[in-house]
Amino acid sequence: MNNLALFGGSKVITRPWLRWPRHDDAEATGLTRVLNSGKWWLYAYGGGPRPDDAASADVSEVEQFEREFAAAHFVKHCYAVTSGTNALEIVLQACDVGPGDEVITTGYTFIATSSAILSRCALPVYVDIDPDTYNIDPARIEEAITPRTRAIEVVHLGGEICDMDAILAIARKHNLKVIEDAAQATGSILRGNKGAGGLGDAGIFSFQASKVVTAGEGGACATQDDVLAERIWSYRNCGRSKTGLWYEHPRLGHNNRMGEFQGVVLRAQLSRLPEQCRTRQRNYDSFLAKIAGIPGLAPRKLRPDAAQRCLSVLILTFTGAGWDGIHRDLVLEALRAEGVPATLGYGWANYQNPVFATMQQTLGDRAFAFGVERFPDWLQYAERCPATEKACRDRGIFMPHALLLGSDADMQTLADAFAKVYEHRSELALRGRK
Ligand SMILES: Cc1ncc(COP(=O)(O)O)c(C=O)c1O
After folding, report:
1. Is residue 356 situated within a structural domain?
2. CA 124 to CA 117: how far, in whole Å?
């Protein structure tokens, strides 16, 4: 095998198959249809608020997407909004999370999981992840509950659904709402028609460009609960009510509606999702089999009861065993030089982000709006969440889902790149010691 690309050798991956987003004529035809229709927003199809089930042959693309998305996830209500962040803020508001409340969540996630809680003037309370699944560890939730806890906001990281049975049992016992941050879990379904986003009280999805169904940006709120559905509908629609007048606003809401151009693109994207999930699963299994002989690389533990996985992030654990003491970050550098788009994922936990360090200083006395005089010492969570810290610093390897849309030969090439870096580990170790 030739020298590492990091040291001037030739790359293993010369033909990148990574291409995302993908589209075909369905998006182009749909966009032209919307453009020519002159109906570019949801309410071009009706003068004002109206029931979801209004019978009309001429139905908005957004509304059709909402129905199709809800059906695909076995959830009763779905409302499309402008982003996943925005969807989180709406469901937290619909669940009555507000000043002085605490919301239990994890720090091993995108910042929006936390910032949405803070935007409600509520405080995130971090619970560690299970190091094998990378999702919240249900065994650690109860000890974090206080009289101020209002909700548990779980993250289905990389599309892998959390242990919802355990989480829901705790929530019911303590009368807490469960919100699913399913931003990365579009298309993840458990056996028995249990879809991500429809398992807790409310769920959210993201259609930002890196996600498996995308319109560049966009999001959705989902719930099985009719009362929450009505609130979500209202909050994303300027606080209107379904029975009120157009300029009548019984609630404090915002315009978070999705436009028709995004709706039509998302319908086309959604239609390809089941096939793409099958391809990703097949390639994932094949890739894991091909790297099984390389020590120190462990697949994350997946649920045995998945009917469909979206595999929106390919996550591996670098245990370091058999790698001559090399750190993950050097392995990542060598992999990237070989053409593998591997990253460290979340390099720090949410609570380690600079915004947390400056919060008290920036808000000063105004921390009272959060129902506290002082914010907690956020760095206490670094001690309370050792698995999160380790995943960030030493163990996590993330690769984009589009890698898994290649051919089986592509999976072999990917595995070859890992094998090559492993075989040259002693050279890497020398460099690591420099
Ligand atoms: C776990 C998680 N939550 C929330 C979001 C926010 O979604 P958006 O980027 O659409 O606002 C993301 C997006 O990456 C995410 O990964």
Report:
1. no
2. 6
Task: Give residues with Cβ within 8 angstroms of 43, minimum separation 6.
Answer: none
Show the tokens assigned to 408.
């089986």
Select from 86, 106, 184 the residue to mutate for testing ligand 1; criterion: most ligand atoms less than 8 Å from CB.
184
Determine the pLDDT at residue 51: 46
Which letter does DSSP use for residue 396 in this model?
Answer: E
- Please, which residues have CB within 8 angstroms of residue 7's CB and are 6 or more apart in sequence? 427
310 belongs to a structural domain: no
Contacts of 329 (CB under 8 A, 6+ apart): 344
| E-assigned strand segments in 256-374 | 297-299, 306-308, 313-318
Residue 92 in any domain: the answer is: yes
The pLDDT of residue 2 = 72
Three-class secondary structure of residue 101 per DSSP = coil
Relative to the CA of 109, which ligand 1 atom is closest? 1
Is residue 122 a part of any domain in this protein? yes
**What's the number of domains the chain is made of?**
1
Select from 253, 233, 252, 255 the least CA-distant residue to 243: 233
Residue-wise pLDDT tens digits, 198-228 = 999 999 999 999 999 999 999 999 999 999 9
Q: How far is the C-alpha of 218 from the C-alpha of 324, rounded, in Å?
A: 44
Q: For residue range 172-188, what is the model confidence (pLDDT) as tens digits? A: 999 999 999 999 999 99
DSSP sequence for 142-208: GGG--TTEEEEEEE-GGGPPP-HHHHHHHHHHTT-EEEEE-TT-TT-EETTTEETTSSSSEEEEE-S
Domain holding 177, by residue range, is: 25-269
Q: Whose CA is nearest to atom 14 of ligand 1?
A: 110
pLDDT band for 432, please (50, 70, 90 cuts). low
**What whole-number distance in Å separates Cα of residue 213 and Cα of residue 272?**
9
CATH code for the domain of 141: 3.40.640.10
As to burial, measured by CB atoms within 10 angstroms (0-12 exposed, 13-18 middle, 19+ buried), residue 353 is: middle
For 225, 279, 404, 427, the CA distances from 282, given in Å and listed in that order, are 35, 5, 8, 34
Beta carbons within 10 angstroms of residue 32's beta carbon = 11
Q: Which atom of ligand 1 is nearest to the CA of 210?
A: 14
Please tell me the distance between residue 232's alpha carbon and the centre of ligand 1 in angstroms: 18
